[in-house]
Amino acid sequence: MKLIKKYPKLFIIILIIIISLPLSAGINSMGETGQFIKFIFYNLLIFNFLAFILAFVALSIFPLIGYFIMKGKAPKPFKAIFLSIPLFLIFGYLSYALFGDGVHEIKDVFHYFNGHIMEETVVIDEVSKGSVTFKLRGPYETYKLSDNREFTLFTRGVLKDGASSGETYIIRYLPETETILSMQQSK
Length: 187
Known about the structure:
With about 190 residues, this protein is of the alpha+beta class. Helices cover about 55% and strands about 20% of the residues. A hairpin with a 4-residue loop joins β2 and β3 (about 150-155).
């Protein structure tokens, strides 16, 4: 109890982690619906919302600095201008790195609810695990198909044992972002 009173924020973070682990496992076991819930939660709510907030902060830096300089409230105007440039670049880059393709992601939500989910039988030529990119939302797995298209997974849980090269799979995916919702080995 003393630790909880001394570190209440740490306790809340640990509690959220403890609650989210079984919740994430439950969502993974829900199949296609679980993948769609993850798509909405991660792509639309978390990443795009944070990107919007960071873009707002980045774009409001110069007007705020200009206001303080014009009103004479900035003690060192040149220092304020030179500090605002790296802040703008940092917040702007973080915003850019978090932004997804919001318009297509919203269209995919409507496609899902209208039942417009694409289904194909494909042959996977190459499977590659996540790679480092300039975006903060890196891929979990990338599948290169026999017709030279690529499908990217951003979360776990679509296929339990992982995909193998040269195998045939039936995939169901959202048409705009080509987010895979389910993937089964063809028999």
